[in-house]
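PROTEIN FOLDING TASK:
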Amino acid sequence: MKQMKLYEADDKMISLIKDNYSLLQSLGSFGINLGFGDKTVKETCEMNEVDTYTFLAVVNFTINGYSHFEDDEQLDVPTLMHYLEASHTYYLDFQLPFIRRELEESLDADDHLARLILKLYDEYAHEIRRHMKYEEKTLFPYVQSLLENRYVGDYNIETFSKHHESTDKKLRELKLMIIKYLPSNTQLNNQLTATLYDIYNNEEWLQLHAQVEDSIFVPAIRRLERQSRQSDVTKNITSMVFKGGADMGEALSDREKDVIIGVVQGMQNKEIADHLCISVNTVITHRRNIARKLQIHSAAGLTIYAIVNGLVDISSVKL
């Protein structure tokens, strides 16, 4: 069993590479250039303007599977963003086309099965590209909005987690087709074996990439979301206190105020609907409008709003 080794800031960067050559690609994704001589990890990261703590978190996780990042406030999200974006560029612009060229050179172009293998690979590459482009178009801008204190209430990191579909099935099928069904061609066999080896290596890389997202990036974004929501509630409370709640209160209908009171009293949507003799869908619509008008998304925030604006008496609220 391989013994766990956690690398630290004072370790030589060359030692990390000698022990784990697979880290070479990670260096490029972090924006760390080769030619670092005998510098330590900290010196190399500082020279390349990379957050040392975040670099080591990713390195130690990919090597050892060490995971304890749920409330880790030292992780630098911009560094993680750069790492993931650069990893996408590497895989989409270099690795996927490289493997396809290898396959083309390894297969008999006149063989029907070989053409089907290429088609299967193209389907796999399309799925990978679709997923990574989704992240670039949807997830990364959302994270950037959090970094700029612009919380987007209709999206959260759990939406990304549910969309994080695996492409393992397609890749397993591709490997099995190559190994089990391609006709033997002695002249191309060595080249095809080398290509298959590269496919296995890339499968491992993709698995590690997904694990870094799920185990390091997602917890860091959850923490950003919590901070942003807390900041959002604080700003709204401050605004209500200084304005006496007049502008905010006038924006709400009487029915919306009734719904807020129900939320403050701990009622679920169905209970509020029964109490007010309206449908559950109507309650949901009222709550959506309340959140839009007040920019308050939590029950705690609505409770504070209701107390400040005299909708409920503080003595009737269970704290």
Summary: The CA atoms of residues 84 and 260 lie 41 Å apart. The first helix runs from residue 13 to 19. Residues 241-250 have pLDDT under 50 and may be disordered. The radius of gyration is 27 Å.
